[in-house]
Amino acid sequence: MRLVVLVQAIIFGSIHFQWGLGGIVMTTIMGVVWGAAFILCGRNLWIVIAAHSAAHILLVTQLYSSPAPA
What's the pLDDT at 12? Predict the structure, then answer.
C-alpha cells in the first residue's frame, strides 16, 4: 500500500511541473500526506477532497492578500 501512495504522490507532483522543481517537490509531499490520510482514515476520499480544497483556498487567499508589486 505504501508503494501505491508513493506512486500517486509522484504523479500528483509531476503534473505541477509548471511550478518548477520546488512546486513538484511540495506537491509530491502533499500527495504523500494526503495519500497517507486517505489510508489512515479508512479510505475516506472526502478527507483528501477537503484537504485539497483547503490548500487551494489558502493559496488564493495568500495571493490576493499580498501587496501589489510596485
Answer: 92
